[in-house]
Fold:
Amino acid sequence: MNTLFLMALLSIIGLGIIYAIEALKPEKATIDPNYVAEKRALTLGFGEIFVPQNWIASSIDDEQRALENLSLLIPVQLQDQVAEVPVDLVPASRTTPSAYLLDALYIHRFSSDPAQYAHGLVGRTLKDGEGYENESVWYDPLRPQPFVAKCVAPLDETVQTPNCLETKLVTKRVAAVIKFPEQYLPQWKAFDAQMRAKLELMTKAD
Structure:
């Protein structure tokens, strides 16, 4: 049998096996961004919150109530996709809201590079040094409690990796550290509105 023909035949058979295996894999469950499961009452530091069970990504015991931190995956709708956003809940005493840092810290670290304007946001690079390297801040200049994200330059702009973060208060005692890819910035209004609403849900028992 011709060697080239045999190689082509084996390749076709190999592809058929691969497609058959893929077809047998169970489909990934569709995530409903609006679904809120039964809430679990938890304490971080001295603050009580009520977290939907379907958002919890940390491994915690059934009886455990008091925590130092809690990892969540909060679903949000972004155009035609549902994104699960990594969010870490921590005691508010351990971090500072990004909106406060904008005026208290970041503005004093802006480099002399010209500002960028995109999607209703202002972008400013930060001076290197003192723990800041290849970082920029994107913020909404109009609201008193603005959207403020600090982003580190991605290694690969084609890959969506969480290279931006924003910290918001959930309650006076609990803060949320939100991590997301810079590719979400064009949709920041929808992203920010949904995230604020999701954090507000955790302040209520029902």
